[in-house]
Amino acid sequence: MSQQVVSLYRLTSLVANLIGSHPGTQNVWVTAELSDVNRRGHVYMELIEKNDSGQAVAKARAVIWANVAQSIIGKFENATGQRFESGIKLMVRASVSMHPLYGMSLVITDINPEFTMGDLVRRRREILMKLKAEGILEDNRKLEWGIPSLRIAVVSAQGAAGYGDFVHQLYSAGFRFKTQLFQAVMQGERTVPTVLAALESIESEADKWDGVVIIRGGGATSDLAAFESYDLAARIACFPLPVIVGIGHERDITVLDYVANMRVKTPTAAAEWLIQQASLQLDKLKMMAQQLHVTVSERVSGQREQLSYFHASLPLVATNYMARRKTQLERAISSVGNLSARRIAPGLQRLDGLAQRLQMLSSGAVSRQRALLESKKSLLDALSPQDTLKRGYTITLVDGVALKSAKDVSPGMKLITCMHDGEIVSVTE
Fold this sequence. Notes:
Layout: H1 8-21, E1 28-40, E2 42-50, E3 56-64, H2 66-80, E4 89-99, E5 103-111, H3 113-133, E6 151-156, H4 161-171, E7 178-183, H5 191-204, E8 211-216, H6 230-237, E9 243-247, E10 262-263, H7 267-335, H8 341-382, H9 385-390, E11 395-398, E12 401-402, E13 414-419, E14 422-427
Parallel strand pairs: 3-5, 6-7, 6-8, 8-9, 9-10
Antiparallel strand pairs: 1-2, 1-4, 2-3, 4-5, 11-12, 11-13, 13-14
Helix pairs in contact: 2-3, 4-7, 5-6, 7-8
């Protein structure tokens, strides 16, 4: 029995010719997940298709030749804001190529960015729907900020420009903010685990902080892809302290913006929001102090008027009462004819003396109360800040805040010394 025998090269060349001549294998649009990207002039990768359970059901090698790689990938990244890296979904235009030595691969000549953008929106929507189903989507947004909110834990990268802008803006406002940096990597594959670790450290000492700020400065929009994470979104959504997210530019949005207590456009805007809240709280305290002073003054004035009324009316009440009693007694004497005037006269004298004594006692009690009220008023006036300054005391301010200890003074610090009739500005050596 005769049998045709061909070489491997001839067989693979035959397959290559068949594939190359078939219209269904040339310039077709293919959807797949990107994996194992390797840039070496030419850009090599694998395209994978997975089923609903996440198992790979198809895999193919692919390449973008160096002469078009920069144009194709650059256009894709500018349009989507996504880095061309493993894990993203793509729609590519490719032709099947079969090489006798290197086997089959797909040669990519174009990428449709709209498909990837739609997949990003879909994934973000799926994360938000999952958080809503779990009942935690709005938990962090419902948290109230403490009064005052001056102790802030910061999640950012050491030395990052955004972190520097945030700190400079915050401490230039004159409030006594306390901050601590919990370092994290803010782009790339290490973003999620390091930010989660920073949040874990903050939660372990949550009683030390009023809130959390997660900030990252500007840069390529593609650098923000790591923040499109369910794990990060869920952690922030159920975090026990209110969280501010200030990542990227004003145009940049990630899934974290939908779950955080407050979303701001930049790290500087995060500092400005905290300063604004501190200013509002200070204004409320000043208003409360003014209302307290007015209330106390009105109370003292009302008590003084009431005391004056009692002072004027009590002696008259006592006199009228004794007069009525005397009249009643005189009538009783007139009606009893057999009583001796000599026995009744001493009683009348004692009644007159009692009336005079009662009047003196009531006047004395009123005078003592008046003196006590005046003493309290004098003490209230003496404790006022203005009278304290008039007695020779001063208040030293640093950035608008009262200086309480010499240990807080450092060289080159600007001091403002307040007296009752003006201010003195000095600089420490």
